[in-house]
Amino acid sequence: MRRVSLLGASFSPVAHLEASNQSVWWGRGWLSGPRCQRRLLAMALVWLLMGLAGLSSAQAFTLGERVRIGSLEWDRHEFTVGQLRPLAKQHGFVSRAEREGGGTIYEMGWTHKPDWTWQAPFGSPAKDTEPAVHITFDEAAQICRWSGGRLPTDAEWRDAAYLEQRSSPAPGFARGTRYNYPNGASAQGSHCLKGCANHAGLAPAGRLTRGVGHVAAGTTEPGVNGLFDMGGNVWEWVDTGSGQERITRGASWWYGPERQVESDVATKPKDTRVAYIGFRCVRDAVALRR
Asked: Residue 279 and residue 257: Cα distance in Å, rounded?
């Protein structure tokens, strides 16, 4: 009996049905007769294709992926704890939040949180797939340089987040279209406070007075240009601003979808180190050719 491989597991639909019932009937005599096995194998193929088509973005996701958008190579997801660990060890990096005994979050005013750092964003050890937060602008810029890149400018970030540039976009996206949200026509595929996808955040119960915290990279659905979490999850530093202020883009799990739109320009002091600001890096085409 021929076996079918489905998502790495081998099984025989025919053998499974026959083991369950030696005289399988689905409608009058539909599975009886010499064509039974061919019919069942055809059904198994349909099930396989439906399963592959229904794979979630997380199942098809690889940590550390980069994608080419125009003249830049982008981190497909927000910079993660797992990506920062080896760089921190190599360069002796200790964040300002770590030196100060923890970062901050807003709870009826800015509140210092002991032991909340990029390695423990809500006071408990983080998984490698979680976004690196409690990172200042200057720290994010340095980390990108260590990884061979830089922070994007605001204009670069906006074009990557809202303007579909792929020659063969995924279903639901059209080349040359500028979308209202980084996830397309709506923010429903993103992770936010309310009105987006219904994801369970990674903050331990009782740690937050608002929201559920961020989700791991690759949890949500990819959006414009195949990027993850350009809308929601955590704000992202961009290298545009004046004086000691820099723009953050995309909003976070702290806010609803209304903060994810392109017209929302939020600025923060460069030394801000909170639980809902992260970053991602880009690499210039010139650097890629070297």
From this structure: 19
Grouping H, G, I as helix, E, B as strand and the rest as coil, residue 274 is strand
Q: Give the distance, in angstroms, between the CA of residue 58 and the centroid of all CA atoms in the same chain.
A: 8
Query: DSSP strand E in the chain: where?
Result: 4-6, 9-11, 66-69, 72-75, 104-106, 110-112, 235-237, 245-249, 266-269, 277-278, 282-284
At 81-96, the pLDDT tens digits run 999 999 999 999 999 9
- What type of residue sits at position 36? C
pLDDT in tens, 201-249: 999 999 999 999 999 999 999 999 999 999 999 999 999 999 999 999 9
Q: Which pTM was predicted?
A: 0.80
Measured torsion, CA atoms of residues 220, 182, 84, 238, in degrees rounded to the nearest 10: -160
In terms of C-beta density within 10 A (0-12 exposed, 13-18 middle, 19 or more buried), how is residue 113 classed?
Answer: buried
